[in-house]
Structures are given as C-alpha cells and as structure tokens.
Automatic annotation (TrEMBL):
<keyword id="KW-0486">Methionine biosynthesis</keyword>
<dbReference type="GO" id="GO:0043716">
    <property type="term" value="F:2-hydroxy-3-keto-5-methylthiopentenyl-1-phosphate phosphatase activity"/>
</dbReference>
<comment type="similarity">
    <text>Belongs to the HAD-like hydrolase superfamily. MtnX family.</text>
</comment>
<dbReference type="InterPro" id="IPR017718">
    <property type="entry name" value="HAD-SF_hydro_IB_MtnX"/>
</dbReference>
<dbReference type="Pfam" id="PF12710">
    <property type="entry name" value="HAD"/>
</dbReference>
<dbReference type="InterPro" id="IPR023214">
    <property type="entry name" value="HAD_sf"/>
</dbReference>
<dbReference type="GO" id="GO:0019509">
    <property type="term" value="P:L-methionine salvage from methylthioadenosine"/>
</dbReference>
<keyword id="KW-0378">Hydrolase</keyword>
<comment type="function">
    <text>Dephosphorylates 2-hydroxy-3-keto-5-methylthiopentenyl-1-phosphate (HK-MTPenyl-1-P) yielding 1,2-dihydroxy-3-keto-5-methylthiopentene (DHK-MTPene).</text>
</comment>
<dbReference type="InterPro" id="IPR036412">
    <property type="entry name" value="HAD-like_sf"/>
</dbReference>
<dbReference type="InterPro" id="IPR050849">
    <property type="entry name" value="HAD-like_hydrolase_phosphatase"/>
</dbReference>
<keyword id="KW-0028">Amino-acid biosynthesis</keyword>
<comment type="pathway">
    <text>Amino-acid biosynthesis; L-methionine biosynthesis via salvage pathway; L-methionine from S-methyl-5-thio-alpha-D-ribose 1-phosphate: step 4/6.</text>
</comment>
<dbReference type="InterPro" id="IPR006384">
    <property type="entry name" value="HAD_hydro_PyrdxlP_Pase-like"/>
</dbReference>
<protein>
    <recommendedName>
        <fullName>2-hydroxy-3-keto-5-methylthiopentenyl-1-phosphate phosphatase</fullName>
        <ecNumber>3.1.3.87</ecNumber>
    </recommendedName>
</protein>
Length: 221
C-alpha cells in the first residue's frame, strides 16, 4: 500500500491572504501591480516577478517589512486539526511555499512542523535592496523557473511509492497539481484543475479537507 504524503501551499492556503502581495501592496512601490499581473498571467516566471517586486523595497525598511509580513497573517480555520489528523494517521505533511523565510518560519513556529518539512524561499537584506534567494530551484525536469519548485520536491516522493495530495490556491501550485493524485483547491487553482481535467476537491477551510479524508477512510474500511 502506498504511503500518503501531503504538499501544502502557504500563502492564500495555510493563510487566508496572499502575504507576498499583501506586503508589496502595503508598501506600494510604484509599478508593482503590472509585475503581479504579469506573474498571474504567466508572462513572467514566479522567480522573476517576486524577485523584481521585492527589489523595489530598500533594505532600510527591513524591520517594517518583516513585522508586517508576520503580523498581517491570519491562519485559515482548521489548520491545527489537519496537522493532528496527519499525525494520527501517519501522513507525511510538507509545507511547499512560494513565500519567504522571514515570515513563513515565524508564522509556522507555533505549529511544531519540523523545519526540514518546510520549503520556502530565502531573503537577503545585506545590500541596498531586498533580494529574494532561491534555495529550492527547478531540477532538470522543470523549465518553469518556479523559484521554489514544488514539482522538484514532489519528485522526491515517486508516484510508485506515494499517494500524493496537494493543497493550494494559485499559480505556484499549477505544475504540482498535474503530478498529484488528488488536489484540494481554492481560487485560481480550482479554475486550472477544471481546465486541465484534474481530480480535485474544492475547500474553504481545512475542516473540509479533514472531513473529506475521514469520509474517504471510512469508505475504505
């Protein structure tokens, strides 16, 4: 029997809001809207667009940017319950985030997720402008310049051995959804799953996901 593993997005999934957009919108550097639109429309890669947007912010604003990034977050209902369900049922849980370390790690710290189960982008405040770093780039099988490549991480869990579930909401999840056995989707990801004919279940809170998994487990019995 295949081992089950969950890959869960952060911005707009674990959190109610998209923190990257919220940060940039809050500090409002001129021209950021067009870059964001280009990323959503797939005219620019995620790595390129996110890098460009944060490069608009001077490192002199480091403390304000970090503080806003952490304190602006609201966790989606049911997240603790999903983590408890995974622990009880021996399901591996990974956070695969296009977000950035300075807010992802502090926000997730209270939930006890092992650091090695959290994948996200890095940050460099040593120069004049904020630079985003990319410790989890695409492998030779991905040409999408993801920045934080979810499919590269998923390939460490081959389909022959794992039943792979993806939870997400947006453009950073499109490629991973194509590899998953089942997608729990919101927002743009739901639209994409319908367009591609991918097996997906829409959700609004993590309670919906736990209820689905419980129902599925009961049916198998």
């Amino acid at each position: 029997m295949k081992k089950r593993v969950i890959f869960c997005d952060f911005d707009g999934t674990i959190t109610v809001n998209d923190n990257i957009i919220a940060i940039i919108k809050h500090f409002n550097p001129p021209g950021w809207e067009q870059i964001a639109q280009d990323v959503l429309a797939l005219r620019k890669s995620i790595r390129q667009g996110v890098g460009e947007m944060f490069r608009m912010l001077p490192t002199s604003m480091k403390d304000e940017v970090i503080s806003y990034g952490i304190h602006n977050v609201r966790i989606r209902d049911g997240f603790s319950e999903l983590l408890a369900y995974c622990k009880e049922n021996n399901i591996e849980f990974y956070v695969t985030s296009g977000g950035i370390d300075f807010f992802v790690y502090p926000v997730l710290a209270p939930f006890g997720i092992p650091v090695e189960h959290i994948y996200c982008n890095g940050s460099d405040f040593s120069g004049e402008r904020i630079e985003i770093t990319w410790p989890n780039p695409c492998d030779e099988h991905c040409i999408n310049d993801c920045g934080m490549c979810k499919t590269t991480i998923m390939r460490n869990f081959p389909a022959s051995e794992y039943n792979r579930l993806l939870i997400g909401d947006s453009v950073t999840d499109f490629e991973g959804a194509k590899q998953a056995d089942l997608v729990f989707s919101r927002s743009q990801l739901t639209v994409k799953c319908k367009e591609l004919g991918l097996l997906h279940v829409e959700f609004e809170t993590f309670h919906h996901i736990v209820a689905y998994l419980n129902k599925e487990r009961t049916a198998v019995r």
